[in-house]
Automatic annotation (TrEMBL):
Species, as recorded: freshwater metagenome
GO molecular function: ATP binding; ATP hydrolysis activity
SMART domains recorded: AAA
Lineage: unclassified sequences, metagenomes, ecological metagenomes
Pfam families linked to this entry: ABC_tran
UniProt keyword Transcription present: no
Stored PROSITE patterns: ABC_TRANSPORTER_1, ABC_TRANSPORTER_2
Official protein name in the record: Unannotated protein
UniProt keyword terms in alphabetical order: ATP-binding, Nucleotide-binding, Transport
Residue ranges occupied by any ABC transporter domain in the UniProt entry: 2-227
Annotated family: Belongs to the ABC transporter superfamily.
Length: 306
């Protein structure tokens, strides 16, 4: 369990983290989301006491990070995969981490095999690709078999196989009862592996709950209707207050009505339906809706034409 309470951090006059508080429970993957500049990375650094917060506390199973007697056994964190001495080999990087925490050398070979780097373990880190550095960083996280795992953009630089692999690793760790907190801009991946969500904007907590609850509250809903006689439904649907988005000559997206009502209207007019399916927007749609007012950087409109 991670408990963050009243965390505040300034850089000069800029308030990066604003009295932020949340909990991360064990047994599930928790996604940590926010727009660029929202304070996610700063929050993680303050949690691990890499940056000094002006106020607030972070407790890992009831203890501050500085008070952990065996930190690598209790909290494994990867915030920057590039923060590795480029002249060391991958194996030697892990060996000094293991030695500093009293771990046996055989554990280094075990985690190298787990992350798929055994064949390049003797190569210098400067020759590693970004994806390989991410795998090496995760190996360091797993060295002490920690009860809590904290990762910032762990899929950055990974190919599709690597992204799926890290998703499987994190869900497996959570299924063992560990506490897993993952920050990522890859919302499709968060949707696949996370059960809980923490969403922040401008350093403040915007939402905390399950992914399902978040999408249910904030994503758009509509009904996809397909029929060869679909235009016979236009007048009754509009009379019921529905709005219609025409996709093609036989397919509409209907908002403001449900599938049962649409089905009854079609049956009363003997309209054959090929499809009548409720649709819900994605986690990305819900996220953009919630964080619209907290975006520090806004993109301009891009015209679709040539």
């Amino acid at each position: 369990m991670i408990t963050v309470g009243d965390l505040t951090k300034r850089f000069g006059s800029k308030l990066a983290v604003d009295h932020l508080g949340f909990e991360v429970r064990p047994g599930v993957v928790t996604g940590f989301l926010g727009p660029n500049g929202s304070g996610k990375s700063t929050t993680m650094r303050c949690m691990l006491e890499l940056d000094r917060a002006e106020s607030g506390t972070t407790l890992f199973d009831g203890r501050r990070f500085r008070d952990l007697d065996q930190p690598l056994h209790q909290v494994g964190a990867l915030l920057d995969a590039g923060y590795v001495h480029p002249g060391r080999s991958g194996r030697n990087h892990l060996r000094w981490l293991a030695a500093s925490n009293g771990l046996p050398r055989r554990r280094v070979d075990e985690v190298l095999e787990l992350v798929g780097l055994t064949s390049v373990a003797g190569a210098r880190v400067r020759t590693y690709s970004l994806g390989m550095k991410q795998r090496l960083g995760l190996a360091g996280v797993l060295l002490g078999d920690p009860t809590t795992v904290i990762l910032d953009e762990p899929a950055n630089g990974l190919d599709p196989e690597g992204i799926r692999w890290i998703r499987d690793v994190l869900t497996h760790l959570a299924s063992q009862g560990r506490t897993v907190l993952v920050s990522s801009h890859q919302l499709s991946e968060i949707a696949l592996m996370a059960h809980d969500l923490i969403v922040i904007g401008q350093g403040r907590l915007l939402e905390q709950g399950t992914v399902a609850e978040f999408v249910e509250r904030h994503a758009e809903r509509w009904v996809r209707v397909q029929s060869p006689g679909i235009f016979e439904l236009q007048q009754p649907l509009e009379q019921h207050g529905a709005t219609i988005e025409v996709i093609d000559d036989t397919t509409w997206h209907v908002r403001g009505s449900d599938s049962r009502t649409i089905g009854e209207l079609a049956a009363a007019r003997s309209v054959v339906l090929y499809e009548l399916s409720p649709q819900t927007g994605s986690l990305e749609d819900a996220f953009l809706q919630v964080t619209a007012a907290a975006q520090e950087y806004r993109s301009g409109h891009v015209d679709g034409g040539a």
